[in-house]
Amino acid sequence: MKISIGSDHAGYEAKELLLNHLKAKGHSVIDAGAFSLDSVDYPDIAKKVAEEVVSKESDRGILICGTGIGMSIAANKVKGIRAALCHDVNTAKMSREHNDANILVAGARVLPHELILEMADTWLVTDFLADRHQRRIEKISSIEENVLDGRTS
User: Is 138 inside any structural domain?
Assistant: First the structure.
């Protein structure tokens, strides 16, 4: 699987661990930064990863910042992205099964790095269940279309 991965400075160390972990498992990984502990603006990284996922340059994306909140907000501004801020293996699994999340988001300052690796492993092998959940994904897409068209209903 081809995965775009990105972090801000707070998530840099976790991203580096995850990047090496994913490569060791045979995944192709695009590193969108950060490339050091120097301060960067998380919206820039979130946008880059989200655009790589939407354009199909990557199959999925993973973002890491201090809490995951900023990255998830920024990534979800890109049309077609369903970025899920997850806190454990179960939420990571459910984000794929029920929500067809295409970006996993985690907080490096609130989760142990080992848990982030475990969450990513589970998230990457979990399929979307579709069925009744597909209808809900279509409703999310409809909201996105209406907002972009300037409609409120």
Answer: no
- State the pTM of this model: 0.92
CATH value at residue 70: 3.40.1400.10
Q: Which domain holds residue 36?
A: 2-128
Return the SS3 of 138: helix
pLDDT truncated to tens, each residue of the chain (153 aa)? 999 999 999 999 999 999 999 999 999 999 999 999 999 999 999 999 999 999 999 999 999 999 999 999 999 999 999 999 999 999 999 999 999 999 999 999 999 999 999 999 999 999 988 777 777 878 877 777 776 555 555
Active site residue 86: no
Q: Which of 9, 65, 86, 113 is an active site residue?
A: 65
| 19 domain-assigned | yes
- Go through 121-145 and write b for each residue having 16 or more CB atoms within 10 A of its CB, e for each that does not: bbbbebebeeeeeeeeeeeeeeebe
Total domain count for the chain?
1
Catalytic residue among 27, 87, 98, 133: 98
Cα distance between residue 99 and residue 112, in whole Å: 24
Is 113 in the active site?
A: no
The answer to the question of residue 150 being in a domain is no
Whether 146 is in a domain gets the answer: no
